[in-house]
Amino acid sequence: MSIGESAITIPPAPEFMLTALDVEKGEPVHPLDRLQIMSADAWEVFTLEFVSYLGKGYESVTRCAGAGDKGRDVIAKYAMGWDNYQCKHYKDKLSVANVVAELGKLVYYTWRGDYTLPREYRFVSPKGCSSDCIDMLAKKSRIKAEIIKRWDKACKDKITKTESIPLEGTLLDYLNALDFSFVDEMSSHELIEKHALTPYHTTRFGSYHLKRPQVRKPESSAVGDNEKVYIDALLDAFSDADGAEYSFDSVMDTEYKDDFERARINFFSAESLEMFSRDAFPTGCYEKLKGECHEGVHSVVRKKFDDGYQRFLEVSTHCVKIPYDSHPLRHFLQTSDRKGLCHQLVNDLKFKWIKK
């Protein structure tokens, strides 16, 4: 072997168990890295997404895009005021000069009376703030000093294109009276944490972070209000098979007990998946899943059977074979969910086991 050359060893095997998602997509791009490749417009929409779900009692959240926003990007209004989320998507970290330029607009337009001071003013940037900027935001009294020192260069001729705004007279008095304790930044980690609480997160970053909770077991002695329709339909299907009358209690002593208990387990599983979907996926995602299930079993439901019980069995057998390859929830689907979807469709009155 020549000098400077070394043998290449075989890379070690992965320390985790591979899933279909791992093989299809490879190692996921970390959300913090994805933040860096967003366009400026996408960055504002990203901010709009998580601000809408901050849970601070906002009555409305709007985006001020383009020229004339007067230093406001994402405005969150509540009963007694508003918060501003200032979106800055620069190639470098936010500097003191960047922050001063934006706060200069805030000072000028609130002094002029175009809008009131916000309750909170947060800088939102994928790369965060420089160390000097962080120090300034931590020591609020320094903010005012930096604005005064940098006004002529960063603000005087840059707030508007139509006039020069010297820092003097009542404007200077107004600035000196301000307390900038409401100004701060949101770190990249905080942004990801807050955005992960929204149903938009999987659309932007994938399902890397999602863990489906354990399914709650149905109570053996009670039927929930959301179970009555599909349970009555199932009991009717049993009755249709042998002519006997069945109730929640009496069916437990018959050959249908296992069908009945599994139906409830499957329904609860699907209900759990629906709740999981509402928290983690965009609106309407689960309804589309039910729509695909309905389409998949429709022709089987339409077939002629001797009784409703036979229709229930055939549909239950067929529904587990339906491919959901293009649906966002496919990696979380279990066999119980697939069967439970059919009971949800019965609950929605999409079909019955007995054709009247």
UniProtKB/TrEMBL annotation:
Organism: Pseudomonas arsenicoxydans
Pfam families xrefs: CTD6
Protein name (database record): ABC-three component systems C-terminal domain-containing protein
Residue ranges annotated for the ABC-three component systems C-terminal domain, each copy included: 227-353
Taxonomic superkingdom: Bacteria
